[in-house]
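Quick start: what a row looks like.
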Amino acid sequence: REFLAPGWQRVIVRGAQEVEIDLTLRRSDPIDVVIADSTPGLPPAGAALAAARDASIAVPADDGDTTTVMREMRLTQTPPAAWSASIWTGGGFAGTGKGMIVVRSDGSSSCGQISEEQRRQTDGIVTLANPASWKASYRLPVESGRTDQFYYSLTLEITKRDGSKVSYSASWQDDSFDMLPHDVHTLYEALWGVLDAHGGRCR
């Protein structure tokens, strides 16, 4: 650990075994991982060179030569086992909002089955989202006073790989749209895109 740059951690696994390492990312940003696999012995390509070297310096052929293979990987968050995302709206001139939509990870929705492209897009947004950081409400310090604006409530329910469920919600109104975190805004746009594709009305 002492020779690692700040922000890097080291995990050592000894012996020939299969190991599962759980990493919990505090943010949605991907992380870089370098895997160094050190194995006694040399690959076939280096055997002739090793033999020539051993012959010239008169040392045993099994002097502990080690092959080290390093691979760099970029890890992102693991997609949840399942999810359900919904938008509810209220307000406006009539006070009845402008629609609502529920989309699920299996491609079903309150508008019917969505396209595979829409499902993949929304699934990617949910996977990269950081809902634990969402505020329950996004409001201007001093409201604009607009009486005809719409109100929005977004709810994301996630089923984790262990079967447990967790739910997150965020609400806002027209004059506070610019306050939304990027992941809330992009998820809203994806859900609303499904609604628009079905004529703006779902059951």
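That is the whole record. Confidence is low (pLDDT under 50) at residues 59-63. The chain has three helices and six strands.
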